[in-house]
Amino acid sequence: LFWADIFAAYAMWVMMTYLTNVWKISLVRAAAIVNFFWGTVLMLPLAIQKLVDTIISNYWMLLVSSLAYSAGQKILFYTALGLIAFGMSGHLVSIGGFMADQMTDSRAEQVSMRSAKLFFFSFCGVVLVPIIALTAFPYIKPWKIRFGIPAIFTVVATLVFLSGSCSYRRRKPLGSPLTTVFRVFVASALKLFYRIPRNASELYERDNVDEIYVVQHTRSLRCLDKAAIILPDKTLEQQEGNRWRLCRVTEIEETKGLLRMIPICLTFIIPGVVSSIGFTYFLEQADHLNRKVGKLSVPLPILLLFYDIARTQFTNLYAKFLNSFGESQSKKYAPAIGFATSMVLAILCCITAAKVETRRLDVIRSHGLIDKPDDKIPMSMFWLLPQFLLLGGFDGVCEVSIACFFIDQFPPLLFKYVAHIFSCTLGLGTMGGVLSIYLVGIISERKGKQNWFQDTLNKSRLDNYYWVLAALTAANLVLFIVVAILYAFRDSRLENLEETEFEETDGPFEDDAECCCFC
C-alpha cells in the first residue's frame, strides 16, 4: 500500500504538466484542478478519522480506500480525481493505526527471525524500488504508461493486502473524542436559558475517581459552562445517563482550549497558499525551460530531489534548535519562533521566484516566444533551483513547527486528531490558492488593464502574483506575531512524548498510534 501511495503521489505531482501539455487546459484552470485535489487530500483525513473511530475500523477503511484508489485509475478523469483523493486520505488515516493494531505485545513475542528479516527486506523494498522506478519515470514518454504503472501497482497492492485478511487483527471502533466537542455545544445550547452558578464547584465534574483526567475550570468562554449545569428537577444519576445534556468541566475546558487556538490557526492558512505554488506554477515554469547540463538532459524530478534535500536539512536544523531549549520554560515558544522563521523563508522564496520570473519573461520577449507556449525557452531550468530550495526549507520548518505547536497546545483528550487538524489547515490554504488567483486576477483587471493570468504561462504575469504572495506572507507574519503575543501558551510536552513514544500510557494519550507516527 505504501508503494501505491508513492507511485500515485508522483503521478499527481506531474499532473500540472499533463493538463497543460496534453489536455491544453489553461494555466489557471489546471492549477485550480491540482490545488483542489491536494486540498481535498489534506482535508478529508479529519472526516475519515471520525468515520473510523465511530463506524468502521482501520481495516475496512484501508480496504474501501484501496478499492477507490484502484477504481480511480480506470474511470473518467474528474471522478477519478475524487476517488484517488479519497484513497490517499484513507491510507493517510488508517495505515499507521492498522499497523499498530497488528503489533500487539503477544504477536511481537511470536515474531520469528525469518519474519523479522522478511519485514526488513520488505521495508527496504518500499524505500528503494520507488526511488529506482521514479528515476526512470521521466524518460517514459507515453502518458498512458506513466499513469498505467501506478494503476498496476495500486491494484496489485490491494490484492496483496486482501490476501492477508484472514490473519489481520481488527479492532472495533471505540468512539471518537471529537464527539465530545459536539456534545459540549449541544448541551450548552439546550441549557441556554439557565443561569451559570457563581461557584464553579457546583458544576458537574467526576473528580472523585483517581484515574480520570481532570482540567481545572477557567472563567473564559463561560457560555459553554452551561453544559455542566446540574438541573434541580432531576437526579444526578438520571442526568449522567444522557451525555448530550450533561458534560464534565474537563470536557468543556478542552473544548475551550480548542476554540482559543482558532485565531492562531487561521494564520496557518497562508503557508498552504505559498506551498501550493510549488506543485503548480513552479513546476509549469520548469517544464518549459532548458533542462540540459552540457549534453545531458536532466529530468524534471531533479528539482523535487533538491526540494526534499532542503526540506530535510532545514527540518534537522529546526530539530537542533528545539533541542537547544532543553527542559526550560522557554521551550513552549520554540514552535512560534519556528513558524515565524518559516514565514521569513516563504517571503524570500516568493521574492526570489518573482525575480526569476521577471528574467524568464525578459528572455521570452527577447526571443519572440510570447505566442509560442510549446517552445523551449533558452534559459536553464536551474534558475529555479534557489526558489525550490527556499520552498523546501519553508515547508520543512513550517510543517514541523506547526506540528510541534499542535502537540504542545492541543487539548489532550482530542490529541488523536492533531495530525488531521494540522493537515486540514494546510488543505484550506491549498484550496485558498485558487481563491487568491481569482481575486488577484479581478483586481489586476481594474482600469482596463490586462489580467495577470492568461491562458498560457508566457502571457501571464506570475512575477506580479509572487510579489503579492510575498506581501500577504509578510502581513500574515505580523498578524501571527500579534496573535502569538496575546495567546497563553501551555507548557511544552514534546519531551514527554519522546519518552513515551512507543509505550502504552494511561490518561489522555492512551493507545495513540497515529500520534506516534505523526511525531
Please, could you describe this protein's structure?
Helix 2 packs antiparallel against helix 3. The chain is globular and about 85 Å long. The relative contact order is 0.12. It is mainly alpha-helical and 519 residues long. The strands form 2 sheets. The chain has a two-stranded parallel sheet. Strands 2-3 form a two-stranded antiparallel sheet. A hairpin with a 2-residue loop joins strand 2 and strand 3. It folds into 3 domains: 168 residues, MFS general substrate transporter like domains (Growth Hormone, Chain: A, Up-down Bundle); 71 residues, no CATH class; 242 residues, MFS general substrate transporter like domains (Growth Hormone, Chain: A, Up-down Bundle). Helices cover 64% and strands 2% of the residues.
